[in-house]
Amino acid sequence: MAVWRVILNVSLADLPLNGVTGIDTSGFERAHISVHYTKRTNLIIQQLKTTLLVDTATNAVLDIHLTTTRRLRHGS
User: Fold this and answer.
1) Average pLDDT of span 32-61
2) Which of 14, 65, 67, 75 could potentially form a cystine with 51 if both were Cys, beta carbons 3.0 to 4.6 Å apart?
3) pLDDT, tens digit, for every residue of 6-23?
4) What's the total number of domains in the chain?
5) Per-residue b/e over 43-68, b at no fewer than 16 CB within 10 Å?
6) Is residue 45 scored above 60 in pLDDT?
């Protein structure tokens, strides 16, 4: 998330923002997940949720937040 925020701040430096923002949140099912990653971390990742903060005048993304629904794999 820190890398995303640095990239967003650099890209927004010269844009004229109007201060009016909108929030959009979407959820995605994780159908094609890395089997190697889930075995290595002992997790089951079920869903990815994205939240965007967008300037209404320029449609520029001001901030992004990603979260996952995770639970530990039992019996492994």
Assistant:
1) 80
2) 65
3) 888 888 888 888 888 899
4) 1
5) eeeeeeeeeeebbeeeebbbbeeeee
6) yes
